[in-house]
Amino acid sequence: MQLNESFATIASIAKGGRMDRTDQSLIALRRILRATEIYGQKLAAAAGLTAVQFRVLQIVAERGQCTATEISRRMRVSQATVTSLVDKLVRHGMVTREKSETDRRQINIVITERGRDTIRHAPDALQQRYVRKFEALADWEQAQLVASLERIAAMLDADVLDASPVLDTGELRDVS
Predict the structure, then answer these.
(1) Is the distance from CB of 163 to CB of 152 less than 8 angstroms?
(2) Domain assignment present for 67
(3) What pairing do the DSSP bridges indicate for beta strands 65-66 and 95-99?
(4) Around 81, how many Cα atoms within 13 Å sit in the side-chain half-sphere?
(5) What share of the chain is helix, strand, coil (3-state, %, to 5)?
(6) Is 9 exposed, middle or buried (0-12, 13-18, 19+ CB in 10 A)?
(7) Please, which of 44, 159, 168, 175 could form a disulfide with 51 given CB 3.0 to 4.6 Å?
(8) Other residues' Cβ atoms within 10 Å of the Cβ of residue 7
(9) How many domains, in total, are found in the chain?
(10) What pLDDT is stored for residue 115 in this prediction?
């Protein structure tokens, strides 16, 4: 829904064409959830991965290799979550684990050719579309959206969940 449509809805409510605001908020939340579900289905069909697994693959692909700690920091999730995601990518042949040549205690996660092919052929990531449109907003609009989304997360008791900046409906879990 565009900002103009949002203002039109607000104006309609003010004039008495009143849809319950609670229903409006639930409909908007459901649309967001459906969009992530639909994207997840498209990604699964095209690449055989969840959106979160795909994001890990993208992070590894950016440098060719990285550590689980780097992925954990970038995605803002626990090391245990990253380990589980990388295990799945290894099973799919998208990445491998290799001992570092410079530090024997360090394990690098390295993208495979199959992983690179998957990235090349995957549908446009939902969160990348969001990022492009979000970054085009005025600073005040960004701040307002962030505040509203954080408030919604708190209302759903979801403000403490282990989550990354990836739009997906599954795979991440509360590991607290």
Answers:
(1) no
(2) yes
(3) unpaired
(4) 24
(5) 60, 5, 30
(6) middle
(7) 168
(8) 10
(9) 1
(10) 95
Enclosing domain of residue 68: 3-155
What is the rounded distance in angstroms from the CA atom of residue 11 to the CA atom of residue 144? 19
Model confidence pLDDT, tens digit, residues 104-159: 889 999 999 999 999 988 877 777 788 899 999 999 999 999 999 999 989 988 87
> Strand order in 95-99's β-sheet?
65-66, 107-111, 95-99
Residue 172's pLDDT band (boundaries 50, 70, 90)?
A: very low
Determine, yes or no, domain membership for 55.
yes
Over residues 70-114, the pLDDT tens digits come to 999 998 888 999 999 999 999 999 999 999 888 888 999 999 999
The answer as to whether 87 is a domain residue is yes
CB neighbourhood size of 105 (10 A) = 6
Give the single-character DSSP code of 94. Answer: S
95 and 110 Cβ atoms separated by less than 8 Å: yes
In a domain, 172, yes or no: no
